[in-house]
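Session log. Operator J.P. requested a structure for one protein chain; no other inputs attached. Running the standard single-chain path with token output.
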Amino acid sequence: MSLAAAARETYVQKYPVDAARVLEAAPEPLAVLEDLSDASVTRLLEHVDPAHLKSLFLSLDAQRQSNVLQRASVRTAMLLLRALSTDERETVLGSLPDSVQQEYRELLDFPEGTAGRFMDRLATQYHAEQTVQEALDALRESGARRIRSLYLVTDEGALVGRVDLQDMALAPHGALMGDLVNPVEEVAYLTSTEEDLVALFDKSRVDSVPVVDQELKVLGIIRYANLFQAAEEAATAGFQRMVGASADERALSKPLFAVKRCLVWLHINLLTAFLAAAVVGLFESTIAKFTALAILLPVVAGQSGNAGSQALAVTMRGLALREVSTLHWRAVLTKELQIGVINGTALAITCGLGVWAWSQSWGLALVIAIAMITAMIMAGISGALVPMILSRLGQDPATASSIILTTVTDVSGFLAFLGTATLLSGLL
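Structure written below.
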């Protein structure tokens, strides 16, 4: 091995995340990969952005593809296999040993977002009658990393309990694993959803959870780190969809790719902007008579937009983490109504005093104060109701909530301000 190749190996092993970013930006990534060992290539792909994963994997020769899949974590292997076309997937799976191929086919059969997709299959089983030394030897042979707990099973595979590595490190090597066992308070099932798993980890505060069948036989383990990574990717994709960007778009994506994905949403947003403009047009005569209204209009619209976005973010987080469901709409609505009244009143006082100091008109100050309270209440209610209504209709709230909310807050803010000004025009 040349000095340069050895340096690249060392860099990948010590700084895999930085190396993955370099690989993603490389004009010829294959030239970077070809001198690396299978272990280093696998480590790199574990940290590569999912948008680049397929192309990098397909740039490898068939033998190296097989070697990488056998070394990769279950999460990375599933991301790769799901990204391939049917023919590509069958070709790659056919090159794997029968046992590995069967395992991956079983995992691919599990529905998206269920425990079966997140779990690591058990490479080694540990038993109560094993000594600590025997269990540690088996752990070393398995090559498993980032392990804090081992799960003990019976000869039939039924769950017995959990043993922490910290307890094993402090125990005599001849001690039995059964003497160190702790009860397992929470388990997951193959069909447990991602939301169920998030709630389970949040409740139990453990690093891993065993996946069992109806007879409590252990099928695999879900690690918090894997679930967190998957949830983070899903949340990022959801945020991008919420603002009209594609979930696949990255900071260095090609311009035409970005334009193709976002242009439709920009046109939709343009139509909603025309709707808001039409509302303003209804009060053209009032604005022409009192030009100060045009100056203050963005103040009301901006505040209502901010309030609506805050309510939207909190509600969507609650729905995602199952803190609330659509059945809780009354409670959520009541909360946002109260927040709108309090915040609106506080802002109305501040804004009213500011407008009076600027214009010396108590009538104009009263108009914007009333409009601010009304707009803040409407914004909070809209921010809570829009994602709940979309969820109730079976739609992804992240896809259209932001655009709908912007339209609602703009229209309601304009109506509140200009409508109040028209009604109280005698005071202006």
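Operator note: The chain has three domains: 3-109, 121-231, 255-427.
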